[in-house]
Amino acid sequence: MSFHLSGENIRVRGAILKAQLRNMGGELVDAEINLDEFIGNNDGNFEWGGENFSQSAENISFSIEGGGEVPVLRADLRDCEGNYHHRDINLSERVENIDGRFEFLHWVYRNVRLGLLLSIQYQ
């Protein structure tokens, strides 16, 4: 389930994404996930499956854009030469609400035409 559509009070502090997410019973529960465990910085660009983006980032921010449809993480990321680049990443590409918990989807296949979503999660 899309975390930004099923959650409230969504925010980012450093690399920690926090919110109150709805569980299967409809209750709001506190949840958080460390984005440094799943997002890296590859020469000044966000990289899914990397680690520790915040170690080479400045001005980290979060907002929901596009009429409430897109949860965007923004930061100035340092490249290999020490220059900073303003970058963004759509967190809904890989972060979901699973029964009131943030979960990172390591692999995602989406077929928009058929409305299918297949994801594999590693524990």
Automatic annotation (TrEMBL):
InterPro entries: Cyanovirin-N, Cyanovirin-N_sf. It holds the Pfam family CVNH. It comes from the Eukaryota. SUPFAM superfamilies: Cyanovirin-N. Residues 2-104 form the Cyanovirin-N domain. This is Cyanovirin-N. It comes from Ascodesmis nigricans. The lineage of its organism: Eukaryota, Fungi, Dikarya, Ascomycota, Pezizomycotina.
